[in-house]
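Data availability excerpt. The first of two example chains:
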Amino acid sequence: MEAIRYHSVRLDKDRCRGCTNCLTQCPTEAIRVRGGRAHILDTLCIDCGECIRICDYHAKVAETDSLEDIRKFKYSIALPAPSLYGQFRNLRNPVYVLEALRAIGFDDVFEVARGADVVTRAIRERMRDTSLPRPMISSACPAVVRLIQVRFPDLLDHVVDVRQPMEVAASIARAEFCKAHGCRPEEVGCFFITPCPAKMTAIRSPLGQAKSELNGAISMTDIYGLILPHMDAMMKNPDFRPSTRYGVGWAMSNGEANAVCPQSSLSVDGITNVIGVLEELENDKLQDLEFLEGNACIGGCVGGCLTFENNYVAKAAIRKMVTAMPDVHPDQDVPVNMLTKYPMKNDVPFRPNDAMKLDDNLLVAMQMMNRMNEIMERLPGYDCGSCGSPTCKTFAEDIVRGHCNEMDCIHVMRDKLKVMAQEMVALAQTRRE
């Protein structure tokens, strides 16, 4: 089992009211309500941010770095996700955002969209290998990869073994900066401007890598207000080399698929929709696909819970911007030597998260499963969440694991009290006689 030592998504206990909104919406059933407060199970949480979106009390928060953290390094580089461009309506050129990032204290800026261009070409090269399982599944969304680890471990060999664009961008940015300024790599801090908590978690607990190339992540909502006053900054970097329209397009659902494999691909956004498609794939119903792009957020990264703008408005803004950019594909823009000059492939395999396993001992696990089935027969099957578990099945599992008991189900308790009341009436009648 792959241990996750860090989670960006946290619970603010002072704000939690113990409602069941998050309980029923969590895609990996990682939330329980006990003692009037929600609890997030570290082993099952994938940091998708769904609980942050739907919590009316704002009791779920994402922990990210602050701008002050860049001061820990002699030099700092901002790596903005392309979804940042969508936060500004009628943005004509990404350079305004990049120069605004310099204005608030970063020594250099490197587009993650350029990393996406390089990753696009790297994936297309990997797809030449016909021995790899099809469809190949994008590894760009950490929440989707962790979802596969938890719920669909048999599909892990389908996940492409090319690093995420933010990791590739960090490798290139640090190397180019050190070469230009004659400094040591450890003196340079690379900070991703993130639209979601899953990226923050992927930096602290990397996927496919022993160590992340990034030093931290700053929330897009935190950055937005800081750079907004500087958006009219004049371009100071005449050597700025922009990414392609395809790299910027990665910010939207279908952006990666359109760049990597437009002829035989499928793009799915929204974690519930992704689950549905992965179930289809697990049942061998998508054999004609070459590539699958999955985004946990509606609309893609522009829909991340740490963005400022409405995801549909942001998507429209990026679409307008990329339409005006030259139609140059990464195959033409990215030199082939880039694929060997910088680390492109994972150095650690994706491993299943066996947190859902009942016990390492098969016999014990079977006994626990039998007990679960017995408990399930006594439960009403309403999946109401009033017991503090998301479904009757998870409630039965929680009982078997020793976390609660059957009387925590209000329906079981009601029936038990009804029987007790009838027995007391019968006893009272017997005494009168």
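And the second chain:
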Amino acid sequence: MATSYEDRVLRVLAHIHNYPAGDLSLDALADIAAMSRFHWHRVFRAITGETCAQAVRRIRLHRAASWLVQTDRPVAQIATGIGYPNLKSFARAFTDAYGHSPAAFRKAGQFLPANPHFKTGDYPMQPIITRTDPARRVVALPHKGSYTEIGKSFEAFGALCESRQLWPQIGLVLAVYLDSPDEVPADQLRSYAGAEFRGGATPEGMESLEIPGGKTAVLTYKGPYSGIHAAYHSLYGNWLPESGEEPADQPCYEIYLNNPRETAPEDLLTEICLPLK
């Protein structure tokens, strides 16, 4: 029975991410889940910790934040694209969630250079240290597509952990990114959404990854996840050329130090970890 509920939750979360402008009412999502409206509401909240309305609002506005700083789409088009045909309603909801109007958020972010070719010095410096990290065993779900949409896989990962009562065996939440978004088309990018795992056998439906320990450059980024892309430019374009260090032949990974459901976007803390030789 648990697996049946898992499948329903995963199906609904995927639907919200895939169709942010669609009908995402409780009745519509209950139909996607193939459950009655009343029971679906309880099942979804028990497994995810949110009501359907809270999840829809958060996912939609996160998509809008990403589009605001990573595209030049008009604000009205972004609003329509996430299911807010009324621009004033969108602006009010976005301001409530992010503390800035959509226009102010876009202007303050400056997360994309005017010229798509990065030039050292175009981005503010970020606090970066080197440390020796331990080897990490990770269980995760694979994600293929734009990194800004990896939240879809984290939603599914969290739902599985809740449904299977895995949280006592879960450590730091992290993501592993296998490709460079500057070289690989967005729809072909590969990554993993998961966490450190202290249990035994790999949970069914998840994949096990090993992150080797060793010397690591760590950039601590504070702010909305939509701005992380620019922090990578600071790490690679500002810090690395001056550091005398050489990256190891291993992918970067991110460690998320607080919970986006409980933390204001401007207070989110993310460690961007670059393995070094």
